[in-house]
Design goal:
Strand content: 35-45%
Number of strands: 23
Number of domains: 1
CATH topology: Tachylectin-2, Chain A
CATH class: Mainly Beta
Number of helices: 1
Low-confidence stretches: 1-56
CATH architecture: 5 Propeller
Shape: globular
Strand order of the largest sheet: 1-8-7-6-5
Mean pLDDT: 88
Distance between the termini: 27 Å
Length: 386
């Protein structure tokens, strides 16, 4: 879920949401597809601005186009929306997208999508319910799924922000493609929320991101903003020291924690209004080189999003330290693209993944937004070439 309260209208009840459904929910054969599309979805071959020189082997992205789907869609009687993370399955040519529905509208789940990068369609192939370690669906409000990443053993690593306001810890768990939980990646105790709110994750600012290296050896996730004991959350005047967690996937061992400095939010208009910014997703290029998506919201200004390259090579490994030590060297980051310069309205962008190679050999990059199941927002897919 977005960390920005101004983007969090009260979610409608499932029946109300489905009454305003605008999607094609096809029943019948198991191979039937629900094709979600929006009239006037923009698609154009265009070149995005160059925001920075090539860094970490990545040049500035070129925008290929976008698809915007209206909120209130459904697939086979299941609410569609809240897309907070996305990952690509090259073997099947499909994408898996996690919904941040906290088992409130429907059971916690991920969607299987077919995306046409050269057209203007997103097809929902299936929805898969997540099952906890006991083989049951997750109870309402017991998790907040935010990221999803495909492993080399063809399982999915999914992070949950938890709910610090209710004492529910964040988690990182591994699920099979049928949705059954198969393993847990341990999150250190100093991330656990305390009853006096003196330490641990901040509410709605926890493990928002998650990604796996192309060699399938390493998984990374990160807090959206600082742990309570590490510093302030991001405002219009100050950034926030998030922590990146890096795991070795072969044995699910936590190799390191590294400081990532989230940028300050944009100044709201008028001054004094709501403003926030957070680390929304990570896409590893290697165990030390990452792409990072920051996104924010400021009242009177709207949504913002930036892509950065991130280098952990010289960052201090603060693994196991409950409070950040003075003088810890943060990860080095370089602006790759400020998405505001694309000249298109931005929604609440939260998910990031590589797609297939394009015909000219470049990598495709897919971003997706979380519509918060709000009638005033939409699910926005942006497609880039690197």
């Amino acid at each position: 879920m977005s960390s920005l309260s101004a983007q969090h209208p009260r979610r409608p009840r499932a029946a109300q949401l489905r009454r305003r459904s605008a999607a094609l929910a096809l029943a019948g054969s198991a191979c039937a597809l629900a094709v979600l599309s929006a009239p006037g979805s923009a698609w154009a071959d265009r070149t995005g601005p160059t925001a920075a020189p090539a860094a970490a082997g990545v040049g500035a992205p070129q925008l290929l186009g976008q698809v915007a789907l209206p909120s209130g869609s459904s697939f086979r009687d299941t609410a569609f929306g809240g897309l907070s993370g996305i990952t690509y399955d090259a073997e099947r040519g499909l994408y898996y997208a996690i919904s941040d529905d906290r088992s409130q509208l429907d059971a916690a789940r991920f969607y299987t999508l077919r995306i046409d990068l050269t057209g203007r369609r997103v097809e929902v192939v299936a929805t898969t319910t997540l099952l906890n370690g006991k083989g049951s669906t997750f109870p309402a409000s017991s998790l907040d799924p935010e990221s999803i990443a495909l492993t080399g053993r063809r399982t999915l690593v999914i992070s949950s922000e938890g709910d610090a306001s209710r004492g529910i810890a964040a988690f990182v768990r591994e699920f099979d493609l049928q949705g059954a939980q198969v393993a847990t990646l341990r999150v250190p105790d100093h991330y656990r929320p305390t009853t006096d709110r003196s330490s641990g994750i901040r509410n709605n600012l926890a493990l928002e991101s998650g990604g796996i290296t192309e060699d399938r050896t390493t998984y990374v996730t990160a807090t959206e903003n600082a742990l309570l004991q590490d510093g302030r959350s991001a405002t219009a005047t100050t950034g926030s020291p998030s922590r990146i967690l890096r795991y070795r996937l072969s044995d699910r061992w936590l190799q390191g924690e590294f400081v990532y400095e989230v940028e300050p939010a944009r100044q709201p208009v008028p001054a004094g209004g709501t403003a926030g910014n957070g680390l929304a997703d990570l896409l590893p290029l290697s165990s030390t080189q990452l792409l990072a998506l920051e996104r924010g919201f400021s009242s009177g200004v709207g949504n913002s999003a930036q892509l950065y390259t991130v280098d952990l090579a010289d960052a201090t490994n603060v693994r196991g330290q409950p409070t950040l030590p003075a003088g810890a060297t943060p990860a080095r980051k370089t602006l790759l693209l400020d998405l505001r310069t694309l000249g298109i309205p931005l929604d609440n962008l939260e998910g990031l993944t590589f797609g297939p190679r394009l015909a000219d050999g470049r990598r495709s990059l897919v971003l997706v937004s979380d519509d918060n199941f709000s009638a005033t927002q939409q699910t926005q897919f942006l497609f880039f070439a690197l």
